[in-house]
Design brief:
Chain lengths: 399, 156
């Protein structure tokens, strides 16, 4: 035996620590993982989040409830609308604001369009990470249509800041509804296309089946939520458990997985997209006429035309924009079903126009926390599949 | 089961531990003494009629500049929901400024691990018995805990 030959035993026993990220295209942002390897097998994983920490919770304490809306855009920057909605729903719960029905349906409609957009980015990048490059080209093409739809309504493509406390900023333009229908007519066919590309693909199956398994009990214990949890078969969807916006008025199913592996979570998210199309179609059919802003004069931001012609409205707008109104004292924790999972806002109010303390319960943060359990025992290449399947955005994880 | 009933059950089981309840917007918060927090959490998690299996959030609030507040400075807050029954409850535990510590609940919910690390990092609460209490969002050599009220928003 020559001196360069190592016995098999020596190779297996030598442990190596590998640093992945923060600058790595497959970490979906600036996630850093310190991975302990034995050969190619992962024996330990220590995620080091925080590279995108901007002190958002601290910052929120010095902003009014209204001024926080655009900050929420910077949490999960792929699906801003759902963050806006999560924040606003929490504030409305705190103050007991009643939102008119039309606004609720518009919110639901926009939130589901954004959910599709988020899931498309997930599918594209997840497939790209595992080696199916084509899917990404297609999903980003369809996402472009969704961004166009967002632009028609909000004027912005991503950081929309569209949902307002008590309603939405503006009504939807007339041609938007037709464009939406065009999209929902087209999209299910496209979804089949992506699905045929990978669902039966042998490489895809090899890379996803049996990888990153979570039993139902473990998944709940580790705080997983959203499709990441439902892949393990736990029926927990906040749109059903604690309906907000108009989710109690539309019909949809909650897709569930069985095995709790990467593949099942893929199936769940694909089916969720089908359900989102269903919800969007119902919203389009049921969209009631009426106001889009609450009639509670304390919280309703007056519309621009009135502000320009009415002295009182101008004064009220000035007060709302500069210091907001005094909110009731108390605290609430309100969670909504964002595309990544349970997005919760815990607000403590001291009775002023600015929150005393805000805690953001970000699904991505919790999911990254479950990553060590998910990847241990798998190969190093599976780490990439696991990062994709928990569907994280680091803006939200690090806050 | 509604949250008031759960609060009552905690009171019956742990008499002398409950300092009161607060309700806002239909959400119930139970104020507890800090000594038995792990036992209360264990009870809420294991009791078949409650089954608080999902610890949605764990955080802390610094009450030092809250108007009219005279209690101990920090409050550790546990928001939990049962994925089986869909009911929620919030536990609130005050800890003092001179020794802000409380027992970890990591052994009950794994998810508490990172929430507690974050609370330690940003608010400076120490969790007794935590398996791996390190800073998480800030660098290891960071000085101070930014979410405390005396920590400046600008100038660092």
């Amino acid at each position: 035996m020559s001196s360069t030959d190592a016995t098999e035993k020596e190779i297996v026993q030598k442990e190596m620590t590998l640093n992945m990220g923060p600058q790595h295209p497959a970490t979906h942002g600036v996630l850093r993982l310190v991975v302990d390897l034995q050969g190619e097998t992962v024996v330990g994983c220590d995620p080091r989040p925080g590279y995108l920490h901007r002190g958002i919770e601290k910052w929120m304490e010095s902003r009014t409830y209204h001024q926080i809306i655009p900050i929420t855009d910077r949490l999960e920057y792929i699906t801003c609308m759902n963050n806006n909605l999560g924040w606003v729903v929490a504030v409305e719960k705190l103050a007991g604001i009643i939102v008119p029905e039309r606004a609720q349906f518009i919110r639901t409609l926009m939130a589901e369009l954004t959910r599709l957009s988020g899931h498309l980015v997930w599918l594209g990048t997840h497939a790209l990470d595992i080696g199916a490059m084509t899917v990404c080209m297609y999903t980003l093409r369809e996402r472009e249509l969704l961004l166009d739809l967002a632009e028609i309504v909000t004027g912005a493509r991503q950081t929309v800041s569209y949902v307002r406390i008590g309603g939405v900023r503006n009504d939807v333009p007339r041609d938007f509804l037709d464009k939406c229908r065009e999209f929902t007519a087209l999209f299910p066919k496209k979804l089949e296309d992506y699905d045929t590309l990978i669902r039966q693909n042998r490489i895809w199956l090899k890379r996803t089946k049996g990888i990153g398994k979570f039993s139902a009990e473990d998944a709940v214990n580790y705080g997983l939520t959203g499709a990441t949890l439902r892949g393990s078969g736990v029926n927990y969807d906040l749109r059903k458990v604690e309906p907000y916006a108009a989710y109690d008025k539309v019909e949809f199913d909650v897709p569930l997985g069985r095995e709790g592996d990467v593949y099942d979570r893929y199936i769940v998210r694909i089916n969720e997209m089908r359900q989102s199309v269903r919800i969007i179609n119902q919203c389009l059919d049921m969209l009631p006429a009426g106001p889009i802003m609450t009639d509670d004069p304390r919280y309703a931001v007056p519309d621009k035309a009135t502000v320009m012609t009415n002295m009182e409205a101008l004064a009220h707008q000035f007060v709302l924009m500069s210091k907001w109104v005094n909110m009731p004292k108390g605290e609430v924790y309100v969670a909504t079903e964002a595309p990544k999972g349970e997005l919760g806002f815990f607000i403590v109010s001291d009775g002023s126009g600015r929150p005393y303390r805000v805690k953001i319960r970000a699904p991505s943060f919790v999911h990254v926390g479950a990553l060590p359990k998910m990847v241990t025992g798998h190969m190093v290449a599976d780490v990439i599949a696991c990062i994709g399947t928990i569907d994280i955005v680091l803006g939200e994880c690090d806050r | 089961m509604d949250a008031d009933q759960i609060a009552k059950m905690i009171e019956e089981k742990f008499s002398g531990q409950v300092l009161g309840t607060v309700t806002h917007a239909g959400q119930v918060g139970v104020m507890l003494k800090s000594e038995m927090i792990r036992d209360v959490c264990r009870f809420l998690h294991d009791e078949p009629s409650i089954r608080m299996d999902h610890l949605a959030d764990l955080t802390a609030v610094d009450y030092s500049t809250y108007p009219g507040d005279t209690g101990p400075r920090f409050e550790v807050v546990y928001n939990m929901i049962s994925t089986v029954y869909g009911h929620r409850i919030r536990l609130k535990v005050r800890v003092s400024d001179d020794d802000p510590r409380i027992d970890t609940v990591t052994s009950i919910w794994q998810t508490a691990n990172w929430h507690e690390r974050e609370t330690y990092d940003l608010m400076g609460i120490v969790f007794n018995g935590h398996p791996d209490l390190r800073r998480i969002l800030l660098p290891e050599d960071w000085v101070g805990h930014p979410l405390r009220k005396e920590y400046p928003l600008k100038g660092y």
